[in-house]
């Protein structure tokens, strides 16, 4: 008989569980967006193609839900091409600190962030880059961050089998009382683990289980990034939808009408 390790068994059970009830964490009312955050999002200096995605990603409302303040030290995990960096770096520039933390690129690959930051010192001059081992992430000094944020990345770590290591690193990096903010593509309750790995959609239950096993407390959930038009069932998983658009040309209008994925938005606290 095959024996499952405790982490693997926990992942499997979480994959099969439904979305937590409201008693687990209250759906949060939309918080007010402070003027500095509004200005960072509305900045005409942001790339026009990136600003066009605001209608799907709701950055001002999402960051306000996470409770960010301009005096915070914020670590963003796996910023990719820097979509949120363009907002967070100027928002935190004067009184806080923004750290863009990424796995060290594999040989032959590179990150766009160093060139992006160097090209615009007015925006990124006080931001920091931090590189870590993707198999054993470490995010700098323990208990040094007010918030750790990650957007549409957890599904990659689940597929790679190292999600627990990431959540443990988040917990270590945060100050007591600090916030972990997670946004990711949302699968229907009861979706199996194999399907999640292939599709890029995760159940809320799985993400909550990963965080709570690392020591976090689920504080609130928001529907700010929900998309009821997304069935979460597409030929090429979440990558069928914008902005990846991995589909036949004949289906372009169909998927454009759906828009970006349905997403969970979860706020956790380090006790």
Please provide a written account of the structure.
This protein is of the alpha/beta class and 271 residues long. It has a single domain, classed as 3-Layer(aba) Sandwich (Rossmann fold), CATH 3.40.50. Helix content is 35%, strand content 18%. It is built from 13 helices and seven strands. Strands 3-2-1-4-5-7-6 form a seven-stranded mixed sheet.
What's this, in brief?
The protein is an alpha/beta fold and 271 residues long. The protein has helices spanning 6-16, 35-42, 48-51, 54-57, 59-65, 85-92, 113-119, 121-124, 154-160, 163-173, 193-199, 204-213, 252-258, and strands at 73-77, 97-103, 128-132, 145-151, 174-185, 217-222, 263-269.
Question: What are the key terms here?
Answer:
about 270 residues, alpha/beta, Rossmann fold, seven-stranded mixed sheet, 13 helices
Give a topology summary.
Elements: H1 6-16, H2 35-42, H3 48-51, H4 54-57, H5 59-65, E1 73-77, H6 85-92, E2 97-103, H7 113-119, H8 121-124, E3 128-132, E4 145-151, H9 154-160, H10 163-173, E5 174-185, H11 193-199, H12 204-213, E6 217-222, H13 252-258, E7 263-269
Parallel strand pairs: 1-2, 1-4, 2-3, 4-5
Antiparallel strand pairs: 5-7, 6-7
Helix pairs in contact: 1-12, 2-6
């Amino acid at each position: 008989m095959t024996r499952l390790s405790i982490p693997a068994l926990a992942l499997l059970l979480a994959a099969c569980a439904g979305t937590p009830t409201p008693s687990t964490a209250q759906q949060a009312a939309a918080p007010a967006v402070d003027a500095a955050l509004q200005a960072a999002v509305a900045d005409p200096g942001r790339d026009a193609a990136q600003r066009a995605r605001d209608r799907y990603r709701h950055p001002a409302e999402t960051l306000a839900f996470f409770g960010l303040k301009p005096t915070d030290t914020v670590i963003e995990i796996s910023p990719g091409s820097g979509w949120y960096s363009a907002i967070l770096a100027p928002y935190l520039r004067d009184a806080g600190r923004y750290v863009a933390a990424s796995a060290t690129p594999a040989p032959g690959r590179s990150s766009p962030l160093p060139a992006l930051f160097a090209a615009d010192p007015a925006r990124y001059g006080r931001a920091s880059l931090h590189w870590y081992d993707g198999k054993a992430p470490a995010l700098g000094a323990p208990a040094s961050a007010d918030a750790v944020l990650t957007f549409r990345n957890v599904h990659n770590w689940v597929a790679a089998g190292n999600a627990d290591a990431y959540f443990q690193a988040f917990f270590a990096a945060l100050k007591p009382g600090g916030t972990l903010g997670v946004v990711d593509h949302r699968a229907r309750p009861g979706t199996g683990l194999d399907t999640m790995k292939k599709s890029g959609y995760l159940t809320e239950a799985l993400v909550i289980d990963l965080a709570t096993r690392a020591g976090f407390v689920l504080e609130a959930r928001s529907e700010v990034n929900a998309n009821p038009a997304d069935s979460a069932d597409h030929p090429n998983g979440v990558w069928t939808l914008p902005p990846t658009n991995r589909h036949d040309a004949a289906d372009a209008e169909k998927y454009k009408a759906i828009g970006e994925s349905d997403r969970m938005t979860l706020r956790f606290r380090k006790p």
